[in-house]
Specification:
The chain has 181 residues and is an alpha+beta fold. It has five helices and seven strands; from the N terminus they run H-E-H-H-E-E-E-E-E-E-H-H. It has a seven-stranded antiparallel sheet with strand order 1-7-6-5-4-3-2. The N and C termini lie far apart (77 Å).
């Protein structure tokens, strides 16, 4: 009787291991979060404002508003490639990390986000600006990332689009409000 119970238990454990292994290989490793807003300002005005990371930290970004005690340091010339903004916070949604401007073109700002706490990750973020009319600009803000296997199983329980998307919506709403004043 005990041998039969142990056999069934062993079979169930083996099935669970196989199910987890299959899930690891069928679950995507990459994710992308993207939101957009139309701002009633010329593209050049929006670009000149949005490329300044200090504006994001001080005026419209959602994360610095979550922790009034956040510590922020800057290296380089803001609004130029190579500029780095680093932050340190005990707030669980903010943590520790840095953002570096990697590329600025006529209609796009690319940054790299390097998170250290509460988890280590490197993500590519971007803002794409498209002229809708001479006085309106569509701003698309997003970021991409990936989890290595088996960490990609986090995507089964965590909806990155929902989690980060709400912050992007808040940030873009703030950006629109600030620029349209």
């Amino acid at each position: 009787m005990i041998k039969k119970i142990l056999g069934i238990l062993g079979g169930l454990i083996l099935l669970a291991i196989i199910a987890i292994a299959v899930l690891v290989f069928v679950t995507p490793t990459d994710y992308k979060v993207e939101r957009e807003v139309t701002i009633n300002k010329p593209k050049a005005d929006v670009m000149n404002y949005a490329k300044i990371i200090k504006n994001q930290n001080d005026q419209w970004g959602p994360w610095t508003k979550k922790d009034p005690n956040i510590k922020i340091n800057y290296k380089g010339n803001d609004g130029e490639v190579g500029f780095v903004s680093s932050w340190e916070s005990t707030h669980p949604e903010v943590g520790i990390g840095e953002q570096e401007i990697k590329k600025i073109s006529n209609n796009q700002i690319d940054t790299e986000l390097r998170f250290k706490v509460p988890f280590e990750a490197t993500n590519q973020a971007y803002m794409i600006l498209d002229e809708v009319t001479p006085t309106q600009t569509k701003v698309k803000w997003g970021f991409t990332g990936s989890f290595s296997r088996p960490m990609n199983l986090m995507l089964v329980v965590m909806d990155m689009d929902k989690e980060v998307g709400k912050d992007f919506n808040e940030g873009l709403t703030n950006l629109k409000t600030v620029l349209e004043k």
